[in-house]
Structure formats: C-alpha cells, structure tokens
UniProtKB/TrEMBL annotation:
Organism of this sequence: Sphingomonas yabuuchiae
Record lineage: Bacteria, Pseudomonadati, Pseudomonadota, Alphaproteobacteria, Sphingomonadales
Catalytically driven reaction(s): ATP + H2O = ADP + phosphate + H(+)
Protein name stated in the entry: DEAD-box ATP-dependent RNA helicase RhpA
Region entry Disordered, spans: 366-476
GO biological process assignments: response to temperature stimulus; ribosome assembly
Residue intervals of the Helicase C-terminal domain: 234-380
SMART domains the record matches: DEXDc (SM00487), HELICc (SM00490)
Length: 476
DNA sequence: AAAAAAC
C-alpha cells in the first residue's frame, strides 16, 4: 500500500512524498479513501498512529474546490487542548502549502483580534478549542451554517475535560448535511452516544486496541522513596546513566513541575517546563525550544500527556505515577513514535502501589521493576553565578561498582557519611555544603513549606519554629 | 488527591 493508492490529488501526493512519507499508516490507509468519499468516520486510534494526517490530507483535497465567505468557515476541527490545536494547524500549513487554503486557529490565552480578523476575511479551516470557539460564537463572530465538515478529535479527552455539552451545542449549530469525523482512543458509552446522535452511517475504523501500549516502548517501574528530593536524586541518576537524547518528565502537579524544572536547571540540565498555569505564548515557546533541541528535557503536567507529537523523544519519565491508568498510556505514548523505540520509567513510591496495579490491569502487562544501584555521590550544584547559568550537557557520575540492592528498603545509605566522603574524595569536599538531613522526620514538611528546592543552600529560607506574630497573621 | 479549558 502506498499513498498513491489512496485517491489523493497529484499535487497533494507530491507534497506528501516530498515530506518523506511513502507508506501510509494503517489508520491513514483505511480512513483517507473513505473520507474522500464523504463518509462519516469513527476512528478508534491512539495518538501517534498518524491520525492527524488521516483527516488533514483528505480535508485539504475536499476543500480545494470552493471558496470561503466572511464569518462562515467551511470546516471545523475541535481539539481538547491549545497545543494540540496549534499542532493540527501546523499540519495544515505543512501539507496545504500549495493549496492557498485559509485557516484560523481559535484558542484561548492569545488575543482575539487576529482571530476575529481572520474570521472576517473568511476561512476554509477553523481549528479550535471549545472555550474560545463558543466565546467567539456568542459574540457573533462566527456562523457555522456553512460548515460542511466537522472533526471531533480526541473525543475521550474532551469527555474527561467536560466538553461534551459544548460539543453537542456546537454540533447543533452546524448544518445537518455535513460530514463528521470523530476520533477517540477509547469508546466509553458517552462517546458512543455522541457518535450515534451526530454521525450518519459512520464507518468505524479501529487500528489499535484501546489501552494497549506501543510495543516499541521499553517500560520500567522504579521503586522510590516518597520524598521529592529522593525522587529528584533518582531521576538525576537515571538521566546520567541513560542515553537520553530527549526526555519528557511528567509530574502530577503543576507545583511539582515548577520545582523539578528549577532543580534540574540548578544541576546543569538543559530543561524547560510546560503546564496550564503558564501564559500561552510561554507554553508554545517552551514546546518550540524542546522541538528544536535547545532544551532536551521538558518537565510537564498532563497538559502535554496526550497527542503531542514531538519527533525523537527517547525517554518518558513519570516522576509521579499517574493517578489514572489511561494517563499512563498517553504519557508514555510521547515516546516510541513513528516506529522509533523509546524507554519509559515510572517512579513508584509505596503510596502509588494501587495506581500501579490499575496501570498493569489496564495494559494487561506486568511492568519490569528496576532496582537502581545506590546513587553515586553528586557534586552539589554550584552557587548560581552568571557564568554558571550557561547551559551545559547533563552529567551525573555513577559509581561503576556500586552494589545492586535487592529492594529499596535494603538499599545502602544513599550518600556516604561525611567522614567517609572526606577520606575518599577530599578534593570534592570543598565544593559541597552540609548534607541534607535525610533522616529527619520534618523533612517532608520542610520540603512542602519551602518553595525552593532542597539543593538550595539553607541560608535564605526559614527553618526554625514559626514565631508567634507570624502564626497570628497567617491564622495558624 | 490534579489537570485541562473563556474573558
């Protein structure tokens, strides 16, 4: 099977082959001819299966004829997150280069002015997240009566995010005579209902068993202590011993994302972060830095878990085990894309045992446990000076002969005591400050209270008892 | 328990 057999126009075919694609993926091979025949489609496919091109390519050919009118887009693509919407827009720019199709990207977090201007001129393709689309619709900037093609992408994610009522409302604004494509990784009952209601005689295409993980991805569970500084230490150890070209590190909370990125940077890693509390331009900029390789580590919340297609991500680390098992499948799916191989490490603290069980139940496979050797002694991050902020390649020393521990509980002390260290490596002692008091029971509290990371020298923070006047003003 | 999405 080749792209030439799918019925795409010669011009588009040339663009596709020039881009280096010769063989369509299974979802492309089955969806493209049907979309060109104007059928409604239910596509059950994981992200990373080539799903986006499966609808973008035939849409370009379908929209090649005809002209758009002011405020009346001819097609609409709905995406759950802003980044995904932007990514689909990039695809249209890439493949639709020769076709002079007009496009508007309607997402929140950026100014409405340009979006409204584009709508006024008339667009062939509208790519939107539901919030901004509804907003502009209610302001009267969009008429959907001329929209004869609708794509609902990542429908199950839309469901998770509570977008289904919005989607239903949008569907009723579109003409009844239209083509609708619905893509989802899974088919929970509400999505099935949505499809029954708004699709006509759809052809169902299923290319990947839901909840199955890509076999290109080597997966490991890494038992870790629950304290965040222990997890960070383990992470640095792994980053140092693995051939990490490119890694996304997922955390469950936005605050953890910020802390971890700060810590990694202090240790000289070229890292960045992305989460929903950041300004939209900043989010896109960080993503761009990562894609270009200016940074090779992206610390992320689940905003980046689904659908993001970044080439050549060699590793995914779950710094926190995800709460929901389907998030696990999506997160690790950021690596091993397009036939490449990838490695996924998931940190599992004792409290995460149940989450891990659910993950293994969902994927139907037991994930290998990886017991790390005791970490080698690290250099303390240097005090930050201007010179030190220059990015350098990540390096962590790992002791070659470190004993392999059977379980975490039996693991030797993570760091040698000061006396031993001084004897063994006197030249490095000067660079190091006092060891963190790892055994102290108040470590967790301290860790939570202080916004900066444990590696920061303790000269700026408050470690003593809280004085009475503070207790009063904070109502403690 | 979180995150995401409109101002």
């Amino acid at each position: 099977m080749s792209f030439a057999d799918l019925g795409l126009s010669d011009e588009l075919l040339k663009t596709v082959t020039d881009a280096g694609y010769t063989e369509p993926t299974p979802i492309q091979a089955s969806a493209i001819p049907s979309v060109l025949m104007m059928r409604d489609i239910i596509g059950i496919a994981q992200t990373g299966t080539g799903k986006t091109a499966a609808f973008v390519l035939p849409m370009i050919d379908i929209l090649a004829h005809g002209r758009s009118r002011a405020r009346m887009p001819r097609s609409l693509i709905l995406e759950p997150t802003r980044e995904l919407a932007a990514q689909v827009a990039e695809n249209f720019e890439k493949y639709g280069a020769g076709q002079k199709l007009s496009m508007a990207l309607l997402i929140g977090g950026v100014s409405m002015g340009d979006q409204i201007k584009a709508l006024e001129k008339g667009v062939d393709v509208l790519i939107a997240t539901p919030g901004r689309l509804m907003d502009l619709f209610q302001r009267g900037n969009i008429l959907l009566t001329g929209c004869s093609m609708l794509v609902i992408d990542e429908a199950d994610r839309m469901l998770d995010m509570g977008f289904i009522p919005d989607i239903e409302e949008i569907c009723t604004k579109l003409p009844a005579q239209r083509q609708t494509l619905l893509f989802s990784a899974t088919m929970p009952p509400p999505i099935k209902k949505l499809a029954d209601k708004f699709l006509q005689n759809p052809k169902t295409i299923e290319v990947a068993r839901p909840a199955s993980t890509n076999t290109n991805i080597t997966q490991f569970v890494v038992p870790v202590a629950p304290q965040s500084f222990e997890k960070r230490k383990r992470l640095r150890q792994l980053l140092g011993q693995e051939e990490v070209r490119n890694a996304i590190i997922f955390c469950n909370r936005k605050t953890t994302v910020r802390e971890l990125n700060k810590s990694l940077k202090q240790h000289g890693f070229r890292s960045g972060e992305i989460h929903g509390d950041m300004e939209q331009p900043q989010r896109l900029a960080e993503l761009e830095l990562f894609k270009r390789g200016d940074i090779n580590i992206l610390v992320a919340s689940d905003v980046a878990a689904r659908g993001l297609d970044i080439k050549g991500v060699s590793h995914v680390f779950n710094f926190d085990a995800p709460w929901h098992p389907d998030d696990y499948v999506h997160r690790i799916g950021r690596t091993g894309r397009g036939g490449a191989t990838g490695t996924a490490y998931t940190f599992v603290a004792p409290d995460d045992a149940e989450n891990l069980e659910n993950i293994e139940k969902l994927t139907g496979q037991k994930i290998d446990r990886l017991e790390l050797p005791a970490p080698a002694e690290e250099e303390r991050p240097a005090r930050r000076t201007r010179r030190d902020r220059a990015p350098r390649t990540a390096e962590v020393e790992v002791e070659a002969n470190a004993p392999m521990a059977e379980t975490v509980e039996e693991a030797p002390r993570a760091r040698p005591r000061r006396e031993e260290t001084r004897r063994e490596q006197p030249q490095r002692e000067q660079a190091r400050r006092e060891e963190p008091r790892e055994t102290r029971s108040d470590d967790r509290r301290r860790d939570r209270r202080r916004s900066h990371t444990d590696e920061t020298p303790d000269d700026g923070g408050w470690n003593g008892p809280i004085p009475d006047f503070l207790k009063v003003s904070f109502g403690i």
